[in-house]
């Protein structure tokens, strides 16, 4: 069973910039994904019970308000779902530490500014499992 069969086509998007959240949601919805958004880790935590299904992917900015990270958002969703939901972290930070964190936590890292074809390729690959 692929990730899309197991989890449907729901993607959780977490970013503190409303215009980025809106833009990502528009793009993902145009690709026939359902999108659940949050602006902070705390916002996500408060709203997890309202999530309309089990996500097949988490897409989060690395640096979030309150010294929180996208990795924390990913772990919050994984804990809520009870399974290792695939994830993509978006960041402008190109240091080796970010790469090591991504590898250790099992998520994909895409560097900003993210190009739409690269985002689509990563999303589709992760949904294919």
What does this entry show, briefly?
The chain has 129 residues and is α/β, with parallel strands linked by helices.
Folded structure, characterized:
It is a single chain. By secondary structure, this protein is of the alpha/beta class. The chain has helices at 3-7, 18-30, 41-47, 70-81, 96-105, 116-128, and strands at 10-14, 34-38, 57-61, 63-64, 68-69, 87-91, 108-111. The chain has six helices and seven strands, in the order αβαβαβββαβαβα. The protein has a five-stranded parallel sheet, sandwiched between helices. Strands 4-5 form a two-stranded antiparallel ribbon. The chain is globular. Helix content is 47%, strand content 22%.
Question: How would a crystallographer describe the biggest sheet?
Answer: 5 strands, parallel
Give the assembly state of these chains: single chain
**DSSP helix fraction:** 40-55%
Low-confidence stretches: 1-6
**What is the tally of beta strands?**
7
- Structural class of the helix and strand makeup? alpha/beta
Question: Span between N and C termini?
Answer: 9 Å
Q: What's the overall geometry?
A: globular
Supply Rg: 13 Å
> H/E series, N to C?
HEHEHEEEHEHEH
Write out the strand line-up for the largest beta sheet, numbering strands in chain order: 2-1-3-6-7
The count of helical stretches stands at: 6
Relative strand content? 15-25%
Let me know the average pLDDT: 91
């Amino acid at each position: 069973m692929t990730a899309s069969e197991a989890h449907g086509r729901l993607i959780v998007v977490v970013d503190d910039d409303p215009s980025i959240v809106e833009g990502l949601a528009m793009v993902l919805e145009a690709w026939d994904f359902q999108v659940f958004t949050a602006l902070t880790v705390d916002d996500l935590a408060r709203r997890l019970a309202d999530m309309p299904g089990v996500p097949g992917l988490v897409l989060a900015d690395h640096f979030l308000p309150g010294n929180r990270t996208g990795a924390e958002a990913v772990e919050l969703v994984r804990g809520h779902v009870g399974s290792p939901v695939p994830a993509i972290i978006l960041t402008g930070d190109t240091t080796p530490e970010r790469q090591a964190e991504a590898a250790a936590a099992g998520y994909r890292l895409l560097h900003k500014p993210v190009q739409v074809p690269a985002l689509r390729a990563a999303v589709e690959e992760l949904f294919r499992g």
